[in-house]
Please model this.
Amino acid sequence: MNTPLKAMLSSLPKSTATLIASLMLVSCASTSEPLKTDSPTKPLQAQSSHLNTQTTPSIATCEQTSEHQIALSDCLQNLMAGVDQQLELTEQKQFNQQQELADITGRDTSLKAFVQSKGAFKSYRHHQCMFVYETLMPGSGAAINFKKCYIELTLSQIEQLNRL
Model:
């Protein structure tokens, strides 16, 4: 953030500065431009928040185009890798926004909550999908349904993060 703007915001009451900072973040988030940070580490490139459905297969596409369970499992594995990458990009974008908000307001509670939320989501996803897997064991579709669960929960999390 540029110094004159930071100085102006620091002279305002905290509630006003927080409101202005939030509006600035909403404005930045609605553009395709990455957020600027003063961080010496290079943030991940901000990209489109949605998977490109023309190049990324969906669960339905995998099911329709796979001739057997091994091919379906491989297709879903590739889809899992794609949604993991998209989640990482979305989380980095959200982290940058929360860091920017913390820098402006002097409050890092939302940043801390976001970091905790990331870990909690990944734990929940693992345990929920293991529940699906264990419920269907020893059936041959257990691993496939684990992957479907993983993909669906990850896509849901991406959607939730993009609403903020």
